[in-house]
Specification:
By secondary structure, this protein is mostly beta strands. It folds into two domains: 42 residues, no CATH class; 85 residues, Jelly Rolls (Sandwich), CATH 2.60.120.10. Helices cover 0% and strands 37% of the residues. It contains no helices and 14 strands. The strands form four sheets. Strands 6, 7, 9, 12 and 14 form a five-stranded antiparallel beta sheet that branches. It has a four-stranded antiparallel beta sheet with strand order 8-13-10-11, with no helix packed on it. A three-stranded antiparallel beta sheet has the order 1-2-3, with no helix packed on it. A hairpin with a 2-residue loop joins strand 4 and strand 5. The protein is elongated and about 65 Å long. The N terminus is likely disordered.
Protein backbone atom coordinates (compact mmCIF):
# COMPACT_ATOMS: atom_id res chain seq x y z
CA UNK A 1 0.00 0.00 0.00
CA UNK A 2 1.25 3.46 -0.86
CA UNK A 3 1.44 6.05 1.91
CA UNK A 4 -0.16 9.40 1.30
CA UNK A 5 -1.44 12.40 3.20
CA UNK A 6 -4.94 12.68 1.91
CA UNK A 7 -8.03 14.75 2.53
CA UNK A 8 -9.53 11.75 4.34
CA UNK A 9 -12.84 12.43 6.02
CA UNK A 10 -15.07 9.67 7.35
CA UNK A 11 -17.36 12.10 9.12
CA UNK A 12 -15.47 11.74 12.41
CA UNK A 13 -11.87 12.36 11.43
CA UNK A 14 -10.32 15.67 10.51
CA UNK A 15 -9.13 16.22 6.96
CA UNK A 16 -5.39 15.79 6.41
CA UNK A 17 -5.02 12.50 8.32
CA UNK A 18 -2.10 10.32 7.22
CA UNK A 19 -3.59 7.47 5.18
CA UNK A 20 -2.68 4.57 2.92
CA UNK A 21 -4.20 3.66 -0.42
CA UNK A 22 -5.23 0.01 -0.75
CA UNK A 23 -5.36 -2.03 -3.98
CA UNK A 24 -8.94 -0.92 -4.63
CA UNK A 25 -7.94 2.75 -4.36
CA UNK A 26 -9.62 3.22 -0.99
CA UNK A 27 -8.04 5.34 1.71
CA UNK A 28 -7.23 3.66 5.01
CA UNK A 29 -6.26 5.97 7.87
CA UNK A 30 -2.93 5.16 9.52
CA UNK A 31 -3.19 4.01 13.11
CA UNK A 32 -6.55 2.30 12.63
CA UNK A 33 -6.51 -1.46 13.24
CA UNK A 34 -7.02 -3.10 9.85
CA UNK A 35 -5.95 -6.12 7.85
CA UNK A 36 -5.50 -6.74 4.14
CA UNK A 37 -7.61 -9.34 2.35
CA UNK A 38 -7.20 -9.74 -1.42
CA UNK A 39 -5.29 -6.46 -1.57
CA UNK A 40 -8.04 -4.42 0.09
CA UNK A 41 -7.61 -3.04 3.60
CA UNK A 42 -10.52 -3.76 5.91
CA UNK A 43 -10.96 -2.14 9.32
CA UNK A 44 -11.17 -4.46 12.30
CA UNK A 45 -14.65 -4.55 13.82
CA UNK A 46 -16.56 -6.92 16.09
CA UNK A 47 -18.28 -8.32 12.99
CA UNK A 48 -15.00 -8.57 11.01
CA UNK A 49 -12.21 -9.36 13.53
CA UNK A 50 -8.55 -9.98 12.82
CA UNK A 51 -7.88 -13.45 11.40
CA UNK A 52 -6.54 -15.81 14.06
CA UNK A 53 -3.46 -17.79 13.12
CA UNK A 54 -2.52 -20.98 14.88
CA UNK A 55 0.72 -20.80 16.83
CA UNK A 56 3.80 -22.27 15.23
CA UNK A 57 4.57 -25.78 16.41
CA UNK A 58 8.24 -26.67 16.52
CA UNK A 59 10.04 -29.87 17.28
CA UNK A 60 11.92 -32.77 15.76
CA UNK A 61 10.58 -34.65 12.76
CA UNK A 62 10.52 -38.44 12.67
CA UNK A 63 11.73 -39.91 9.39
CA UNK A 64 9.20 -42.37 7.91
CA UNK A 65 10.81 -42.56 4.45
CA UNK A 66 11.00 -45.83 2.56
CA UNK A 67 10.34 -47.77 -0.59
CA UNK A 68 7.47 -49.97 -1.70
CA UNK A 69 8.38 -53.46 -0.47
CA UNK A 70 5.85 -55.36 -2.62
CA UNK A 71 4.33 -53.72 -5.69
CA UNK A 72 0.54 -53.52 -5.52
CA UNK A 73 0.38 -54.22 -1.76
CA UNK A 74 -0.38 -51.45 0.72
CA UNK A 75 2.13 -50.83 3.50
CA UNK A 76 2.11 -48.65 6.58
CA UNK A 77 4.03 -45.37 6.48
CA UNK A 78 3.12 -44.29 10.02
CA UNK A 79 1.02 -45.74 12.81
CA UNK A 80 -1.95 -43.84 14.23
CA UNK A 81 -0.64 -40.92 16.31
CA UNK A 82 -2.95 -38.58 18.23
CA UNK A 83 0.03 -36.25 18.84
CA UNK A 84 0.75 -35.77 15.10
CA UNK A 85 0.90 -32.07 14.18
CA UNK A 86 2.62 -32.32 10.79
CA UNK A 87 2.94 -34.86 8.00
CA UNK A 88 4.83 -34.72 4.70
CA UNK A 89 4.95 -37.45 2.07
CA UNK A 90 6.84 -36.85 -1.19
CA UNK A 91 6.81 -39.25 -4.14
CA UNK A 92 10.43 -39.69 -5.28
CA UNK A 93 9.62 -42.42 -7.80
CA UNK A 94 8.75 -42.23 -11.50
CA UNK A 95 5.21 -43.59 -11.06
CA UNK A 96 2.13 -42.73 -9.01
CA UNK A 97 1.86 -43.56 -5.33
CA UNK A 98 -1.48 -43.69 -3.50
CA UNK A 99 -1.91 -42.60 0.14
CA UNK A 100 -4.78 -43.28 2.53
CA UNK A 101 -5.61 -42.70 6.19
CA UNK A 102 -7.21 -45.21 8.54
CA UNK A 103 -7.51 -48.01 5.98
CA UNK A 104 -5.15 -49.63 3.50
CA UNK A 105 -4.29 -47.52 0.44
CA UNK A 106 -5.58 -48.69 -2.94
CA UNK A 107 -4.67 -47.50 -6.44
CA UNK A 108 -7.94 -45.56 -6.82
CA UNK A 109 -10.37 -43.59 -4.68
CA UNK A 110 -10.75 -43.07 -1.76
CA UNK A 111 -6.92 -42.98 -1.63
CA UNK A 112 -5.10 -39.80 -2.65
CA UNK A 113 -2.99 -40.05 -5.83
CA UNK A 114 0.53 -38.65 -5.49
CA UNK A 115 2.07 -38.25 -8.98
CA UNK A 116 5.87 -38.45 -9.41
CA UNK A 117 7.61 -35.53 -7.65
CA UNK A 118 4.48 -34.35 -5.84
CA UNK A 119 4.14 -33.92 -2.09
CA UNK A 120 1.30 -34.16 0.39
CA UNK A 121 1.73 -31.79 3.34
CA UNK A 122 -0.63 -31.66 6.33
CA UNK A 123 -0.05 -28.86 8.82
CA UNK A 124 -3.31 -27.02 9.56
CA UNK A 125 -5.59 -30.03 9.75
CA UNK A 126 -3.62 -33.21 10.30
CA UNK A 127 -5.20 -36.67 10.16
CA UNK A 128 -4.04 -38.71 13.16
CA UNK A 129 -5.05 -42.14 11.81
CA UNK A 130 -2.55 -44.70 10.48
CA UNK A 131 -1.03 -43.69 7.12
CA UNK A 132 -0.81 -46.24 4.31
CA UNK A 133 0.85 -46.11 0.88
CA UNK A 134 0.73 -48.32 -2.22
CA UNK A 135 2.63 -48.24 -5.50
CA UNK A 136 2.50 -50.50 -8.54
CA UNK A 137 6.17 -51.53 -8.45
CA UNK A 138 8.55 -52.77 -5.79
CA UNK A 139 11.24 -50.18 -4.98
CA UNK A 140 9.23 -47.00 -5.57
CA UNK A 141 10.77 -44.47 -3.15
CA UNK A 142 9.10 -41.87 -0.99
CA UNK A 143 10.16 -39.41 1.69
CA UNK A 144 7.91 -39.12 4.73
CA UNK A 145 8.33 -36.87 7.78
CA UNK A 146 6.05 -36.80 10.82
CA UNK A 147 6.00 -34.29 13.63
Amino acid sequence: MAETVAPYDDGDAAAGVRAYTDAAGGLVPAGVAAFVAAGVARPVTAADPLPVLRGVTAGPLTDRSGTITAGGAAQQVAAANTSRKYLLIQNLSGADLWVNFGTAAVASQPSLRLPPGWSLVMRDYVDTQAVSVVGAATGQAYTAKEG
